[in-house]
TrEMBL record:
InterPro entries: Cro/C1-type_HTH, Lambda_DNA-bd_dom_sf, TransReg_Diox_bact_type. It comes from the Bacteria. The keyword DNA-binding applies. Residues 17-71 form the HTH cro/C1-type domain. Keywords: DNA-binding. CDD domains: HTH_XRE (cd00093). This is Transcriptional regulator with XRE-family HTH domain.
């Protein structure tokens, strides 16, 4: 059975930034232009390929008109949900405990 691992911060930040961009109905090009970064770099951030600096994260959240604290709290909430899911015993483990 594969061990469940906590997701990396950069993946969670990227997912949240993509979600916020989609909520605004924007393309990568539009957001990247306002943030002052390349569309390719923003794409890499959103996919969790790059570990962006705090300055880059602030530039993107600024371009999305989202306070940095909203990004961080959204990521933290998602991490808590993932943690809670990881703590749930699997059905197989629950049967083993009952025996």
């Amino acid at each position: 059975m594969a061990e469940k691992r906590e997701p990396l911060w950069r993946h969670m930040v990227g997912e949240r930034l993509r979600h916020l961009r989609h909520v605004r109905g924007e393309t990568i090009d539009q957001t990247a232009r306002r943030a002052g970064i390349s569309p390719q770099y923003l794409s890499e951030i959103e996919r969790g390929v790059k570990e962006p600096s705090s300055e880059m994260i602030a530039a993107v959240t600024g371009a999305l008109d989202v306070p940095l604290v909203d990004l961080v709290s959204g990521v933290a909430e998602r991490l808590v949900a993932v943690r809670d899911t990881m703590r749930q015993p699997t059905v197989q483990a629950a049967f083993a405990l009952a025996a």
